[in-house]
Design goal:
The chain has about 100 residues and is mostly helical. It has a single domain, classed as lambda repressor-like DNA-binding domains (434 Repressor (Amino-terminal Domain), Orthogonal Bundle), CATH 1.10.260. It is built from five helices and no strands. The longest helix has 18 residues. It is elongated, with a radius of gyration of 18 Å. It starts with 8 loop residues before the first helix and ends in a 16-residue tail after the last helix.
Length: about 100
């Protein structure tokens, strides 16, 4: 079962990495080994968490990379499910055996 309207993972990253530590975006990006713009896009919900970013966050925050990857997947899946009825996909029925 899908979580009801999960938050964008960037919101969680911002809470944990910026709000929770007092680091600036520039300082946090340096600690993660990424550019400031990369982290800014993530925490401002303009991009998602890549597998590599999942690993970086897991190291920096002593969490699992799977947690971050799953968070992104659940967010993406929730939004894809909202489009379910408009996708134009039809059920495939296999032919009956003779």
């Amino acid at each position: 079962m899908l979580m009801h309207n999960p938050p964008h993972p960037g919101k969680i990253v911002k809470r944990a990495l910026i709000d929770g530590t007092g680091l600036t975006v520039t300082e946090a990006a340096k600690q993660l080994g990424v550019g400031r713009i990369t982290l800014s896009k993530l925490i401002n919900e303009k991009s998602g968490i890549s597998p590599e970013m999942s690993v970086r966050l897991s190291i920096a925050l002593n969490t699992s990379s799977e947690m971050w990857a799953n968070m992104q997947t659940m967010y993406d899946l929730w939004h894809a499910e909202l489009k379910r009825k408009t996708l134009g996909v039809h059920v495939i029925v296999p032919p009956k055996a003779s």
